[in-house]
Structure formats: C-alpha cells, structure tokens
Design a protein that fits this description.
single chain; about 150 residues; alpha+beta
Length: about 150
C-alpha cells in the first residue's frame, strides 16, 4: 500500500497457523529489515499513514469519476463501466458479440492497457468484460484511453 520496495507486509491468521507461518518465513529470510520496520512503525503511529490513505482515496475517487464520466459519454452501452466504491480498478462489460481477449489485445495495441476478464477463469460463463485500472493513470491519459477504446468500439 505504500511502497512495494519496502517488501514489508503482515498477515492476520488463525492462532494455529502462526507457528507454521513463522517457520516458513524463517526459510525465506531470517529477519525483516529492522530499521525500516521501526521507521514504518513511527510513520503509522504518528498518523502519516492515515493521512496518506485519506489523500489517496480522494485522488482515486477523482480518477474514477473522470473515467466514469468519459466512458458514459464516449462508449454508450457498447461498453458498460461498472462503478466501484473501493479499489484501484474496475470492470467494463462488453456488449454481446465482442470477445474480451481480442478486444483487450486491440486496446493494448493502441497503448491502452486493459485485461480480459475471461483470462482469470477456467470456465468463463459470464459475458465478456475488461479489467480497467484507473488509480495510477493521469487524468489526461484516462481520457485518451477512453477515446482510444471508443474508436475500437
């Protein structure tokens, strides 16, 4: 949630899994980065992490709003974007007759990185859709991506 290079995380597990997970961790690496853990602890307890989360929620909400508005305007019902209250990405449902794998490849070829939902399942029985990220993309780039997808539609 902060910076992947820190390589720190945590698990909340049932009591009976603590010892096996500690044993597994000791095989992977003996000790976590103590200085980084201490700094991160201070960062959290002093409220900086909470402020970071609140700021990111605002940024991501703005990005989602831009994406939803542009998508409604450009795509109509050919590609229906699903709204979300959380997360960094959402789903867009393709109209009947459009294959998500082929469509995702075509979009990627135009510089718009999306994923085909059917590639995440063994037996796909739901209509075709795309996984669309919005959090780490600038607002102008979101609008450009929506226009590029509209041309494909």
């Amino acid at each position: 949630m902060l910076f992947p290079a820190l390589r720190m995380g945590f698990l909340v597990v049932p009591t009976h899994l603590i010892d096996p997970l500690c044993a597994a961790r000791s095989i992977v690496d003996r000790y976590g980065p103590m200085v980084a853990q201490a700094v991160l602890c201070d960062f959290i307890t002093e409220g900086h992490f909470g402020r970071h989360l609140r700021r990111m929620r605002e940024v991501y909400a703005e990005h989602l709003d831009v994406l939803l508005t542009a998508a409604r305007s450009e795509w109509g019902d050919r590609l229906t974007l699903q709204s979300t209250d959380t997360g960094l990405q959402t789903v867009a449902w393709l109209s009947k007759g459009l294959g998500d794998v082929e469509f995702a490849r075509a979009a990627n070829g135009r510089g718009v990185e999306v994923g085909a939902l059917s590639e995440y399942a063994l037996n796909w029985k739901v209509r075709n859709g795309l996984q669309i990220g919005f959090a780490s993309v600038g607002l102008a780039e979101l609008r450009r991506g929506v226009r590029a997808i509209a041309k494909l539609l």
